[in-house]
Specification:
Length: 181
């Protein structure tokens, strides 16, 4: 079993030196070939992600990436929050970085996640917002990760947060929607 290559990072210049955080975390992950195969070997289309979200309410949804320092920092909070949702609430996790196929199984295991995640294929500019509008999410042409949404019964959007680092508001929306145990 070998080490996974370091994740590339996206630098906006506004993260205060945190861009290097994801690389060391990804370097420490060990991924077995069988764990990688659990992802199905392919990438999910934007349309299939939209359809899954639309058919899975109530739901706690996250769009993240292991090469996004904010996502990596916040992910343990998300895992703790996801572990407390009611049995009828779906937890839907989507990585937006195709190279996460290589590291995601190890990342999920290291974080203690009890849910699966799907790696999405790249999409044309503007397409993400158009597709997510179909499930009630309001995503502009330039959005920031992680993006977390809470969808109540019938798919009603109870809350949506971009560049979220503290999940207190997400927890409040889940509580208000009766989606926590």
């Amino acid at each position: 079993m070998g080490s996974v290559p370091a994740a590339e990072t996206r630098s906006s210049g506004a993260t205060g030196g945190l861009d290097d955080l994801a690389g060391p975390i990804a370097e420490s992950l060990e991924v077995t070939p069988s764990a990688t195969a659990d992802l199905g070997g392919g990438l999910a289309s934007l349309e299939s992600v939209r359809d899954e979200i639309g058919a899975s309410s109530p739901a706690l949804v996250i769009f993240f990436s292991t090469n996004c320092p904010r996502s990596v920092r916040m992910f343990p909070q998300f895992v703790r929050l996801a572990s407390g949702v009611s049995e009828d609430t779906s937890v839907l996790a989507y990585s937006t970085w195709p190279r996460d196929v290589e590291v995601l199984p190890g990342f999920l295991a290291a974080s203690g996640a009890l849910f699966d995640a799907t790696v999405m294929e790249p999409w044309p500019p503007g397409e993400f917002g158009r597709e997510m509008a179909g499930v009630g999410l309001n995503v502009g042409p330039q959005w920031q990760m992680p993006l977390v949404a809470v969808l109540g019964e019938g798919g009603a959007v109870l809350g949506q947060w971009e560049a979220v680092s503290n999940l207190g508001a997400v927890e409040s929306a889940l509580r208000a929607g009766g989606m926590l145990r």
